[in-house]
Amino acid sequence: MATEEVNSKAYPLADHELTKQILDIVQQACNYKQLKKGANEATKTLNRGLAEFIVLTADTEPLEILLHLPLLCEDKNVPYIFVRSKQVGCSNNKDPGVEQMAGGGTERVTEEPVDGFIE
Length: 119
Prior knowledge:
4 strands, ribonucleoprotein, four-stranded mixed β-sheet, eL8/uL1-like, alpha+beta, 3 helices
């Protein structure tokens, strides 16, 4: 993996192994329809208390459009992490940059948890 320049504001940044694990979890969440995409959707689910984990990408330009989300995550006690690339999750991502997993109560999320995924 090439060492690319990453904005210093993208903190905490996942290393290569953790990024691989996160991307696997994001792919599983996409398959189970447990994934929301985009900064607006992430902000909505954080404010509603539905978000469980936020994945932000460090190569978003400009990065400042995402920097309100770590503050909201810390306020709501939701874990978040930056990964290096926008190539996260499903291929039909119309607003790359943020993906987050929601627990329940939204239109695209099942009400029953999937065994081994959300407890």
